[in-house]
Amino acid sequence: MVRLAESCRAAIENQNGLGRPCVKIIGFSTGGVGHLGNTDRMVQAILDQSGYDSEFVKLTDLAFTGCKGCVDLCATPQVCLLDDEAGPYYQKMKDADAVVLGCAVYGGSVNAITLSFLERFYGYRHVDLAIKGKPFVLAVCGFRNIENAVEQVQNILKRQGINVLDLVQYLSSSPPCLFCGRHQECSIGGLYRMIGGKAHTLTVTPDMFHKWEDNFITVEAVEAASQKLKEHLGAVQVR
After folding, report:
1. Which residue stretches of the chain are H helix?
2. Domain that includes residue 128, residue range
């Protein structure tokens, strides 16, 4: 049985004689810095639609590193103890009832922020699997070619025995070149590879920045993932 978060254990919503223990979900996103991108908003939507108490963390805004190999420190508590801005969230994730993880894809791989964050999951893996069975929902977003990134993340989580309830994928078809501002002089970027020389005369307009909320397939996938999360946690509570 998934353990209820300590801060919520005693909280009961009691209407018409029906009570529900408070459940805590924590969501992480590695979307681009300085704005709420598709990855961020997908994670937030899944959290909001789950109907449970939740916390959203944008990892890109934190200063932290990957694993530094100090295995003697994390072996006994079975959680990463590195003292940086991501440090407290490894215990929070261990205590949470479920996790939503949003991964941005750069160049066919999940970005370095994602990999650094996941690398420190090693702290959970000593003698036994400290977060085995923990329900996760994944949201993976890139402008194209995200298949390898999806497999990459799934393999990392599989080694931890994590229960991936659902996976939401979104291809924006909006290359980073639209943001960088130098597409008209570039012949190596994603935009040039997509449309060739037309990139050199292209005027960037707001409608080129595609949003997952405008893609009905992704909207349905987000709703379905939220529902699976809600049903799973609801089933855990009544056991």
Report:
1. 38-50, 71-74, 87-95, 112-119, 147-158, 177-180, 190-195, 216-237
2. 6-174+212-237
